[in-house]
Amino acid sequence: MGRRQRKKAPTPELLYKYYGSDREDVFDSLLVRFSQLSALNDPFEFLLDASPEDFHQGAKKVAWATANPLAVAQMGLSQLAKLPRDNPQLAALPIIPRILVIIIVAPILFILILIGSPFFLKQMRSIVTAAVDDFAKVVINESRRGLVLIFSCSAIWNNVPMWAHYAGNHTGFAFGIDPSCAFRLKRKGKNGEEFSKPRIVSYQRDTPTVRSGSLEIADFLSIKMEDWSYEQEWRFFGTPDDATLRKRLPSGSELCLFALEKSSIREIIFGLNCPPTVIERIKVNIEKWEHPPELYVIVKDAGYGFKRLPLAQAPATPIEEFESLTTFDSIEFPQAFAAMESMVRDASSHMITRWFSRNRRS
């Protein structure tokens, strides 16, 4: 079974990150960890079903898509259309002579493109093949070592396993961020983007292959086993050079922290078992923000369900004190003991004997 076709999906308005209660400091520092592949909880991630020949076949497809005669002609005509803007002498001509120059040059350019396209294709194939060799030998291994970093989020806030696994069995919280303005890029993207864009994770049964001709590393980094599909995961990508703060941990691995834009945090949802002290500290912390996020708390719903309520509407949670119960005998059963005492009194007054006598005569 080959790789499934990746479906384009609109980016959700909010993405949710689940944390345990010990991470309440995130609202102080506004720094979050982008993890190395080796730190992810699935050791089967980023495994490729590929041979050198697969990579070379993929390279040929990419080269043909980039340097076929039609693609080269489109690039040439695109550059031709920009001539009046980029060439001052041509731009200074009146409109009619300018159009005549373009009409004369365009056929000549198109013929030259057709003649030269085999050369372009050969050169592009050579370049792409060399690039995929580097990809196979260097990039994949270096990505596993920490060249690529990942910040994982979920498209939903009401995921039961996520609250159990990543939010300390509801003792933590989840916060919703606007993905369009969460992480500011140190350098603008190729299209002028100022913020990092997340990619949706696709789920499939088999390991990804390169036979489809896709050579984008982000494709392989956003594929997981279909067993994880309940997470509805989206991922931000970064590199150690993009990090706001880098630390060396005692284990020898590197901790890469990225600045999260305060204005992107739109919601904070506290788990069912989140300690009131944690809720209060976070509440006090964000009250001073210019645009504080909405606060919600998880409450039980019918059956196994749960829902969220605005924190201001949530029922008060009394702080209970529990004494140590060392033995089962220390637990009291007042109603059961009262019933037993009543039975003993009845027996001592011969009520049971009289009841048997009446029923025997009847």
UniProtKB/TrEMBL annotation:
Xref: InterPro entries: DUF2971
Segments traversing the membrane: 99-121
Name of the molecule in the record: DUF2971 domain-containing protein
The keyword Membrane belongs to this UniProt entry's keyword annotation: yes
Source organism of this protein record: Caulobacter ginsengisoli
Keyword annotations from UniProtKB, A to Z: Membrane, Transmembrane, Transmembrane helix
Domain of life, per lineage: Bacteria
